[in-house]
Amino acid sequence: MQEGTKRIYLESPYKVEFEAQVVEKVIWEKKPALILDQTCFYPESGGQPCDKGTINEVEVLKVLEDEARIIHLLAEDISSDKITGKIEWQTRFDHMQQHSGQHILSQSFHELLGAETLSFHLGEAISSLEMDIRKISEEEVENVERRANEIVFQDREIKCYFIPEEKIGSVPLRRPPKKKGLIRVVEVSDFDFSACGGTHVHRAGEIGLIKILKLERIRNNVRFEFICGKRTLEDYLWKNRILRELSTRFTVNEGEILNTVEKLSSDLKSQKRKGKKMQEKIAQYEAQEIIQETKEKIIKELFVDKTPEEVRFLVLNIIRKGDFVVLFGLKGEERGHLILGCSENINIDMREIVPLVSPLIKGKGGGRSSLVEIAGEEIANLEQALERAFEFIKKKMGLDL
């Protein structure tokens, strides 16, 4: 049986520098790696990422568990058998804040709603909890948030200790432990008891503000995204910066921004409706003008100064006013468009053209028998694509134009 690595972080999470003896050098995930007799580096485990830092000034890329051993993957090999490890403190403390905050948040959900924590993920920017909740109101979310922060403001002690498996019944654990043997308990004084091997702060006040950012339904449960501590401060700073900027631009108080945006949104929708009606009227006039000027049944043209919607209106108005086939192209800034239509009295399925011209403009499209649209990135080939569609229609109609 392999001897395990002593985990200094379990007893001393604030310790950021340590010395150790190299027990074994290995290649792990194609990287040089060390197994030490003891370490301060926390390995990836329990939803918490590993620590960052250096060993003998060499970057530690990843820290993993291999049963009782801890594997330190390095950026390059180290020759010495004695090492000095240094933990990157900002990352360690951030993880301590998030993980301790999660315990308090989970127990707040459990206390107020009877909800169990199904999974926890400590992300680089945002952490998440999946709870066995079918539905939850905004008021309930806010109550949970207030309760969690109440525990933080009380600055309750957070202590970690080990209990033999046979005595675990003496501790009111929120969830049964997954491991056997000696169980590590993380206790938030008179509030939460959890089996956990992570790194935690010593007092709840160190966590800082706990903030739930959003929730989403997943697998008949609810996933909550949250942040704690410095992450919450940074989140508040950029959001407040945006509010101040919007307040200045709209010349309103911050509390009036939402009403102002709603009014602007309503006005914009109204203007879009008016604009659409105007586009339709313009398309009617243009269609009539094109019909009067042409003597052909097939109308082909390439535009550069219209939107796809304007061209679509134009095609529809022409094919409704007589027996025509309309082949229009549009050169956009980034994409080319083909909008092809025919009157109902003309027995042609325009969908047959799509596979003939789509490859020319590296596009995709579709539609109904009387109208198809194709968009592609090869703008330079639009004229060639229109010409191919033109030849196809001539053949279908038996015309010699």
What does this molecule look like?
The protein has 401 residues and is an alpha+beta fold. It folds into three domains: 6-87, Elongation Factor Tu (Ef-tu), domain 3; 92-237, 2-Layer Sandwich (Threonyl-tRNA Synthetase, Chain A, domain 2), CATH 3.30.980; 279-397, Diaminopimelate Epimerase, Chain A, domain 1, CATH 3.10.310. It contains eight helices and 20 strands. The protein has helices at residues 8-11, 89-113, 138-153, 230-250, 257-293, 308-320, 354-357, 382-397; strands spanning 6-7, 17-28, 31-36, 38-39, 53-55, 58-66, 69-74, 82-87, 117-121, 127-131, 158-163, 183-188, 192-195, 210-218, 221-228, 298-303, 325-331, 336-342, 363-368, 371-376. The strands form five sheets. Strands 2-3-7-6-5-8 form a six-stranded antiparallel β-barrel. A hairpin with a 2-residue loop joins β14 and β15 (221-228). The longest helix is centred in the last third of the chain and has 37 residues, at 257-293. It is elongated and about 95 Å long. The chain starts with 5 loop residues before the first strand and ends with a helix. The model has no long low-confidence stretch (mean pLDDT 92).
